[in-house]
TrEMBL record:
It holds the Pfam family GFA. The keyword Zinc applies. This is CENP-V/GFA domain-containing protein. Belongs to the Gfa family. It comes from Microbulbifer aestuariivivens. InterPro entries: CENP-V/GFA, Mss4-like_sf. The keyword Transmembrane helix does not apply.
Length: 101
């Protein structure tokens, strides 16, 4: 589902507890798509950029923030790879990063 919703080979996310996240401004510019009972996506109404996802099947109580959309300086290398069973055939996993399926 992530591949089709993102339109990309794979996506990079920062996953944090939902209780530690809030949007301080711009709420009116955010649209939500409920893809399934436990999976939703938020995106910008103006440009379509992905903002976040919630996947209560995999990480209940957490929000995925689209890593590419974070514009502040930070250095956060990938820590786990998930949903690798759904990866495109042409994507090669980084064997130095643990897989969590
Ligand atoms: Zn936008």
């Amino acid at each position: 589902m992530c591949r089709s919703l993102s339109g990309a080979d794979y996506s990079s996310w920062v996953v944090i507890p939902s209780a530690q996240f809030s949007i301080r401004s711009g709420q009116d510019d955010i649209a939500h798509y409920q893809a399934s009972e436990n999976f939703s996506k938020s995106f910008c109404k103006n440009c379509g950029s992905t903002i976040s996802c919630v996947n209560d099947d995999k990480f209940p109580g957490h929000i995925y923030l689209a890593k590419g959309g974070i514009t502040s300086e930070f250095d956060m290398p990938a820590q786990i790879q998930v949903f690798t069973e759904f990866k495109a055939r042409w994507v090669t996993l980084d064997e130095s990063i643990p897989v969590f399926n």
